[in-house]
Design a protein that fits this description.
Blueprint: E1 4-5, E2 12-15, E3 37-41, E4 48-53, E5 59-63, E6 69-71, E7 74-78, E8 83-93, E9 96-106, H1 117-123, E10 130-135, E11 143-147, E12 160-161, E13 176-180, E14 185-189, E15 193-196, E16 208-210, E17 213-217, E18 221-231, E19 234-239, E20 253-259, E21 264-269, E22 276-284, E23 309-310, E24 324-326, E25 332-335, E26 347-352, E27 360-365, E28 376-382, E29 387-395, E30 398-409, E31 415-421, E32 432-437, E33 446-454
Parallel strand pairs: 23-27
Antiparallel strand pairs: 1-8, 2-7, 3-4, 4-7, 5-6, 5-8, 8-9, 10-13, 10-22, 11-12, 11-22, 13-14, 14-18, 15-17, 16-17, 18-19, 19-20, 20-21, 21-22, 24-27, 25-26, 26-33, 27-32, 28-31, 28-33, 29-30, 29-32
Amino acid sequence: MKKLVLLPVLVFALIISSCKKDDPQLGDPPTAADAEFTVQVSAENDNIIEFTAANSEVIAKWDLGNEIKAEGPNVVGLYPFAGTYTVTLTIFNSGGSISSSQEITIAKDDPTLLDVPIYNHLTGGASLGVKTWAIDSVTDGHMGVGPNPAGPAGETPEWWAAGGCDKKGVGLYDDRFTFSLIGFKFDMVTNGNIYINAAQEPFYPGAFQNLGDFTAPYDDQLEENWSVKEEEDGLYLTLTGDAFIGFVTGVRTYKVISHSDDKVVLRYLDNQDPGLAWYITLVPENTITATCDDPGGGGGGGGGADTNRYDLPIDFESGNVVFESFGGSSDTVIPNPDSSGINTSSMVLETVHGIETWAGVFVDLKTPLDFSTQTEIALKVWAPMGVTLRIKLEDSNNSNTFVEKDVTVNLAQTWEEVSIDFAGEPSGTYDRVVFFPGWGVASAGTFYLDDITQK
């Protein structure tokens, strides 16, 4: 049915509940009665309409007649402009699907429904109507992870926070996210790939390991929708279809921790590990003045400049060596807590293993490794127990180029030297050395590393 409107239709779907029921066991297809739904004008505003599916035991998908899609047995639509809209509910069970439609009429315009701070910040408001955001890649803490529920520190990435440019080259920093006020459209531009949590790898064909997690090929997701709902504990942003924001953990709903014209901070969960809460910081694309490809674009493992790059051997005696950690691990240069046995040096690197089984630390080198005469990478390790140590050598400018090998740390709570032979590997290729102490074990304890050499 043709939609009659007085002005271009701007709409917003407020999803009351997006929780789906599990598909019923194989049986009869749904009936027309299953697809019935009620329409109720909200008590607060004639332009806010509440829709309720008659059968809450099936999967319910809605077309609110205003270019917005929604899911769940109860949804709410905001209609700022007068007009006639055809609302369609399609319900699904294991036996099939069926749809029903109803018309609703909005008598008067109420553009005040659009004058909401979160709308104005995400889209630039009525004067602009569209705004593109990017990850604040050069700023420390632009991505991170903490506990769920939040710990004493509150909703912050207290377990691990990325340094500037830590995740260069994984397919994260070139993603763009565009929010439109007209139709509440959302575009996700991936530039060919995305960065996904390691637990998501089975769901993304072609994914490959990259800086502890995985990079996966992924097409742009255009003409999706975005919506915001207010819960008792804050605002929640939800995307439709297969669109995401930032590091992918299998969810499409994000809690808005803070929002302004210049920055949006989101918190979101992990559908494979409910004990994790991830954080991502967005800034408007047109405000970015430095990127991770610039020499001054950030520290950490960004590459390109000699800042935070070193040559082997590394002994930590100066106290100025900067490593980067991932997977929830930490890294700190401290006085040697066990100055005995084969290691009586003053300073060592302490790393407390993160909650991920692949957690670790890495360092970037000024000069790529040369294996023409010295083929082994050796270091001293103090481990809380016997564990596997994985060493990965990588091209910091092309994370697809890497080699990784394992060695066993046999001694517990004492210094032991271990080494891995990389004979046959090309010289002049690898300028990043990644260490995974306690490989394959979550929260493996506290480790100390020292005297990293090539021999």
